[in-house]
Structures are given as C-alpha cells and as structure tokens.
Amino acid sequence: KMAQCLAPSVQWQMRLTKNAMETSSMTSKMWNSLSLKQSKKGALKTATKFRICASSNGTINRMEDLLNLDVTPFTDKIIAEYIWIGGSGTDVRSKSRTLSKPVEHPSELPKWNYDGSSTGQAPGEDSEVILYPQAIFKDPFRGGNNILVICDAYTPQGVPIPTNKRAKAAEIFSDPKVVSQVPWFGIEQEYTLLQPDVKWPLGWPVGGYPGPQGPYYCGAGADKSFGRDISDAHYKACLYAGINI
Asked: What's a single GO MF annotation on this record (predicted)?
C-alpha cells in the first residue's frame, strides 16, 4: 500500500528504493537524510499537497510523537476532558477544553454544555444540557498536568436530567444517617474481548469453543491468559489516575 501525508504545502514526491524499505522501518534520521524532489518543474504552487510515496512498512508516522508530546515545559495550559454518561446509561461521552492553568478541585472548573438531543438525553427543540464537574483524575492518556473531569448532567434550570443517576445517589450518601457509616463497595472488573475481524472472543478457536474453564481460571501464560496486556494497561492507568483499584 502507499501512504499519503497531506499538508498545506508544495507538492513534492519522494521515491524510496525497494531495498531500503526491506531492511528497516523509516526513522527520523532516514527522513532527514532523504532528498525531496519537486514533482513538477516550474514555479512553486501554493495550496497543494505534500505527498509521500512509500511502502506500508515504511510509512512515516509523526502522529504518535505528537500524541506523546509533553507540553508542560512550554505552557501552563492543560487539557481537561469532560466525561459523562450518555442516554443509554452505558455509553460514555466526552469532549475536551483548554484551561489556562492546572486545577486541583472540581469547584475551580467551569460548567459546560452539550447537545442532549444527540445523546438521547433531551428533545431537539430544547436540547441544551449542562455539565457539572464532580471529580478530577489525572489523565493517564495525555499525561502531564492534563485531567479527566467526571461530570453529571442538568437542565439549564439546574434540575438533574432523568438519566443523571448520580444526583439521587449523592442525595442518599449526603444523608446524616449514611454519612455516619463507612460503606464498602466491591466492583469486579471483567473483560469480554472480541477479535474485530471475526467478532469472536479473543483466544477462542474461530467458529469453535474452548474446553472447560479449569486451565483458564486465574490462568497464566500466553496460551491461557489472552489479552492480559489490556487488563494490565487498564490497571496501571487507574493507579496513575488516582483511582482506588
């Protein structure tokens, strides 16, 4: 396959030899050493495409570098990801906003709004829903001082929308009779991992079923514990965020 990178620049064409692409993937040093040749003679044109021709295993990808870029040394601004539960009660929605500086408490955050008609939480003729920040966690995906903001949803008049189950729970837990108690919670995290190409559980024989659970229960090893890297990544992300897991 050929890879194309588009940018508001002059159209150039880069050709790589077959041998060069077979030996290793493209690196930044290789990128810097490549000579770019203008694809057409004559004056440079504006508003054209920046094109790279390369084989699939040599695709130049700066996206990962940018996603992992730590902007903390360069700016006080942070990204706050506002997160809420959608109308089905099981779908998670979110959107990002830039804050001028890091914050430590939800009270420092502004309320925000969204179109509830698009999430099944408001009618089209009166669709505005207001997000109330309720908790802050460190963002394990973006890192740095960026945060995840857990929100619940209200009407513009300050009334919890019907799918805002947290409001009723907060009312119960703020009752003096409950405050004096020490509640315990046990929530077990389970995973059902499906292979995207065949829509079949990860590790199962395609179109078939595994044997009895004996060897797999609390199992270890690549032939028994399938997708463990996902659960380990989730585990560490929770610890990083400050979640008591």
From this structure: glutamine synthetase activity
